[in-house]
Amino acid sequence: MANPGGTFSVIGPDVTIKGDIEASVDLHVDGKVTGNLACASLVQGETSRIEGEIKAESARLSGEVQGTIEVRDLVVLKSAKIHGDVSYDTLTIEQGASVDGRFAPLRAKAAPSGQTIKAGGDKPATPMSAEEQRRLSLAG
Predict the structure, then answer these.
(1) What pTM value is reported for the model?
(2) Which residues, 6 or more positions from 17, have their beta carbon under 8 angstroms from its beta carbon?
(3) Which has fewest Cβ within 10 Å: 49, 51, 83, 85?
(4) How far is CA 132 from CA 31, 94, 100, 102, 124, in A?
(5) DSSP category for residue 25
């Protein structure tokens, strides 16, 4: 998904959308979306809520998400509350963020069942490589 000319779209805090959203530009969501969301880059406001699958090249999440997330470059801010599995290439999580789900690198989605890396109290099914450890960072 390309971002021609640096344009973006905004879903304001007073807007509720029921249905899937597909945008070829960057998207800023401050309202509520009930449906799947696909865009080039996503910025989610603190008071927003997304119920559905998120697919984007990059995302900066600070609101509530109920659904799976598939983002190459993901930043989860401390005000975020995520309920669902997360697939990423690079990941930054601020201390205080709430995530109830599993983390796995995007390439692990193609691996056979039981080969994904789990977050939380579980031991990884497969040890993280040095490259994966470099791409995973915690922000303080």
Answers:
(1) 0.74
(2) 11, 31, 32, 33, 34, 35
(3) 83
(4) 33, 18, 21, 15, 12
(5) S
